[in-house]
Design brief:
Shape: globular
Number of domains: 1
CATH architecture: 3-Layer(aba) Sandwich
CATH superfamily: NAD(P)-binding Rossmann-like Domain
Strand content: 25-35%
Number of strands: 15
Helix content: 25-40%
Oligomer: single chain
């Protein structure tokens, strides 16, 4: 009996030692990447920006509806994934219409078409329609400049959405198609865009947080385990997608405008309160938050985001992206907030060469201009410094 116990003890001890050795060998095999943190002192923090993303509970509205004598293609409610899904979403909704019972009415390429909204979804909708051969397109929008679409960070990843399980496969496929689109820009294979997308390493705490696993094996390579070394004694074990895509949102908005103008597509600055105001029979509703009233959609809500532009940085030190989640809390206005830290190599239009980089961010459901939650900017900087191991 004692001999049996002794043998079992030796077997257990050997297994534990083997496990320890294996874990140590695994740890030593992880690639270490040196990443220089940005300077986050006050003198290096630039413009503070509030964004309001249009999120729709359940999923974006991607559907075709008949409203009296109008045919409305709805394409809104993408939350923080407007850019991630934009070109794929436009193709998806436009295809729904052209494969519907109304397809015969659209056989004539000169059919008048209205697009409501001049954000990323509206512009990509008009772009996709034009690529299909349609010329008689008018975009209506009450605002054209400094939109959330201009200020958005630019990470291609499905975030800040509220999708029901039955819609997730469709959202994943839309994202995969969008990835292919931006990948073609990054690789200089899209003649309509000279710049606007870059392939850079993108880091997350784990694969699940990225939302990118459905893309792996289709358009992306598998993530790998890496150790980020910030050179100040702080290291972070993360997963890296080395074919992540950064979208230069301000540049892409400019290039979309240039393309549409060159192809005779008009943009009219006008607020549309009802579909009946428009003469066109075919309308693409890309109104974002405006759909709350225009489409009487009570599932649409603003998701407030805080981000800070960086200045006087070293550009070559910022050729990467990071997104990590910190958890939920309450803002000063007692609103639910999901706090995170992200950093992207974003620039604003006409910025100085060294004014590169943006840090964020927050997801405040229901946050609005009456509840700016300005204390979140301070919390954001503290979180960024803690992540990098920078002493305050």
């Amino acid at each position: 009996m004692q001999e049996t116990s002794r043998r079992n003890f030796l077997k257990t001890s050997a297994a534990v030692i083997t496990s320890i050795v294996s874990n140590e060998a695994l740890a030593s095999s992880i690639e270490v990447r040196k990443v220089t943190p940005p300077n986050l002192d006050n003198a290096y923090l630039g413009q503070k920006i509030l964004c309001y993303r249009p999120m729709r509970s359940g999923s974006p509205n991607l559907s075709i509806a008949q409203e009296a004598d109008k045919v409305v293609a709805h394409n809104y409610g993408h939350g923080g994934s407007g850019w991630t899904l934009g070109p794929g979403s436009a193709n998806y909704v436009n295809s729904l219409l052209f494969n519907s019972q109304f397809s015969k009415d659209l056989a004539n390429k000169s059919t008048p078409i209205a697009v409501i909204g001049a954000g990323v979804i509206g512009l990509f909708t008009a772009y996709d329609l034009n690529k299909r051969g349609y010329r008689n397109i008018t975009i209506y929008a009450d605002r054209l400049d400094s939109l959330t679409s201009h200020n958005a960070g630019g990470l291609l990843a499905p975030v800040s959405m509220d999708n029901t399980p039955d819609m997730q496969a469709t959202i994943d496929q839309i994202g995969i198609e969008a990835y292919r689109f931006y990948d073609s820009i990054a690789k200089n294979k899209n003649p309509d865009f000279k710049k606007g997308a870059l392939i850079v390493p993108t880091y997350f705490n784990n694969r699940e947080d990225s939302g990118l696993e459905p893309y792996v094996g289709k358009v992306m390579a598998p993530a790998k385990e890496v150790m980020l070394d910030f050179g100040n004694g702080t290291t972070r074990k993360m997963v890296a997608y080395d074919d992540g895509i950064y979208m230069d949102t301000a540049t892409l908005m400019e290039e979309l405008h240039d393309y549409l103008k060159a192809h005779g597509i008009q943009i009219v600055k006008r607020k549309i309160d009802s579909f009946t105001e428009l003469q066109q029979k075919f309308i693409f509703n890309c109104s974002g938050l405006g759909a709350y009233q225009l489409a009487n959609d009570r599932d649409v809500m603003p998701v407030q985001g805080h981000l800070i532009m960086l200045r006087n940085q070293i550009p070559q030190n910022l050729n990467y992206m990071i997104l990590v989640y910190f958890g939920e809390g309450k803002t000063e206005a007692n609103q639910k907030v999901e706090r995170s830290f992200y950093i992207f190599p974003k620039r604003l239009t006409n910025s100085a060469p060294n004014d590169v980089g943006v840090i964020g961010g927050t997801f405040v459901e229901g946050g609005n201009p009456d509840t700016p939650n300005l204390k979140e900017f301070e919390i954001l900087v503290k979180g960024a410094k803690a992540f990098y191991g920078i002493s305050s």
